[in-house]
What we know:
The chain is α+β, with helices and mostly antiparallel strands and 199 residues long. It has one domain (3-191): Gcn5-related N-acetyltransferase (GNAT) (Aminopeptidase), CATH 3.40.630. It is built from 7 helices and 6 strands, in the order H-H-H-E-E-H-H-E-H-E-H-E-E. It has helices spanning 3-17, 21-26, 33-50, 84-91, 93-108, 135-150, 161-169; strands spanning 54-56, 62-70, 115-124, 154-158, 173-179, 185-191. It has a 6-stranded mixed beta sheet with strand order 1-2-3-4-6-5, sandwiched between helices. Helix 1 crosses helix 3 and helix 3 (33-50) packs antiparallel against helix 4 (84-91). The chain starts with a helix and ends in an 8-residue tail after the last strand.
Amino acid sequence: MNKAEKEEIITKVTSLLKEIPSSMDIVKKGGNRHKRFEYLATHMVEKAIEKDALIISENRMGIAILFKTSKKDDNFLKDISSQIGLVLNVTGIKNAYRIVKNQNYIKKQRPQTGEYLYCWFWGILAESRGADTQVGKEMKDEFYRQATEYQIPLYAETRMRKNALVYQRFGFELFHEWQHPSGDTMYFLRYNPPPKKID
């Protein structure tokens, strides 16, 4: 991926983050909030590129970050408190403790042993949303392809009920709901792939 392509993806992720309750929660209010969203998007896209976890739809309007990980993967999403840049440029110090506490609960819902796929981010730009655009289906098919290829489960969570319903329509199972401290409900979802077909 060249510099211009990377910048295009960061711009799109920045825009999508502004619609997601979890990122609106962690990005400190006041001042130049756009810059904070941009810093967070840059961090996420760079981490995704480093881990070969970036999925981009054919029309470049859908972007997802899908990590293959496990509980013991030390390099995976280290606690935000250890990422000084994020604390200073995105969350603010007051916010950081609350975020870590929430993250600890969320992480406990994921497998404590073995490998799994984790959908850290999935967004589709407004003009490509809807059943007739096929962008969501194209990306879901890639998630499922990887889950089947690796024969490991796929996990995701969302605080947007309509997104939880879309996940379920795509074949995810809703296995847990949590009253998030923000007042929202957080939906925890997983997909268990079918056994791999032997040719």
